[in-house]
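Project standup — Tuesday

K.O.: blocked on the structure for the chain from last sprint. Re-posting the sequence here as requested.
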Amino acid sequence: MTLSAEASYTDGIEKVEFYEGTTKIGEATTAPYSYIWADAPVGSHSVTAKAYAVGGGTADSSAVTFTVSAPNVRPVVNITSPPDHYLMGVGQTVPIIVEATDPDGEIVSVDFYCGTTKLETVTKPIDGTYSGTFAPLEPGTYVVTAIATDDRGGIMGGQSLQIEVGDAPLEKISSISTLSMITPEQASPAGLTSI
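H.V.: unblocked you, prediction finished:
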């Protein structure tokens, strides 16, 4: 936090002091008269400046009120579905489900990317999660990421997700044929008997 004041006098200004109430914060002896208040606590403050003229005499400024906010904590982002190294085929679509939270505010948006290409931006969660869509047009290996932005401009990306895309759509197994058990006796060659 930088405190600044303008002061002038015919014979010159000796120094300018900065106060919060009656507590001196710091001073400046050369123009431009400014002081870096490095440890300004979080909260509301009312600060005044007192100028000292060369040869005597002082002048006080009116109070300036401002608020020091806590540093922004960036969002937390986690891709929950699909799993990493997910397999799919060209022509198929998979939803990318993301959980995003902000410890000290709200999530404004979640951007979905494939490599450096933005797929879409989602601003409203559904059932507490943000959902994007991935629909590849070519086979290959793709890296999908999600980046969340909070209400104070903080940005954070989650872990990347690798998706393997084949030439043709993957088909689900609809049924499994009945399996039969073969005993050692059934497997013995004809004409041989067990000892």
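K.O.: great, moving the ticket to review. The mean pLDDT is 89. The helical segments are 184-187.
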